[in-house]
């Protein structure tokens, strides 16, 4: 099984990129790849329950549906620890499949054969 990391630095500041990132993540996990979405910078806001509920780019499924489908397929979300702390987000409001990690976790994933795409 291949490893595929989708790095997402956007949320409501660029809903098109945020949406496409989860479209690609869903395609990856559906094809049997070990898939991780790494949220950093503004993307970390997407780990909060309810944050994506009103994001819907024309031509795509609503972002909440994409995130839910990704979770149901076994997709993992990693959340950049310093980015999360900088924005004073609520650990208790995180999505069930989201985990706060440091940069070393991403480096380890990529250095053991992972491929990455950024949005």
CATH superfamily membership: DsrEFH-like
What is the domain total for the residues?
1
Alpha-carbon Rg, integer: 13 Å
* Order of strands, widest sheet: 4-3-2-1-5
- The number of helices is 4
Q: What's the CATH first level? A: Alpha Beta
pLDDT average, as an integer? 97
Provide the β-strand percentage band: 15-25%
Q: What level of helicity do the residues show?
A: 25-40%
CATH architecture: 3-Layer(aba) Sandwich
Overall form: globular
Structural class: alpha/beta
Describe this entry's structure for a reader.
- There is one protein chain.
- With 119 residues, the protein is an alpha/beta fold.
- The chain has one domain: Hypothetical Protein Ychn, Chain: A (3-Layer(aba) Sandwich).
- Helix content is 34%, strand content 22%.
- The protein has 4 helices and 5 strands.
- The chain has helices at 15-30, 63-72, 81-86, 103-111, and strands spanning 3-8, 34-39, 76-80, 98-101, 114-118.
- Strands 4-3-2-1-5 form a 5-stranded parallel β-sheet, sandwiched between helices.
- Helix 1 links the parallel strand 1 and strand 2.
- Helix 1 runs parallel beside helix 2.
- The two termini are 23 Å apart.
- The mean pLDDT is 97.
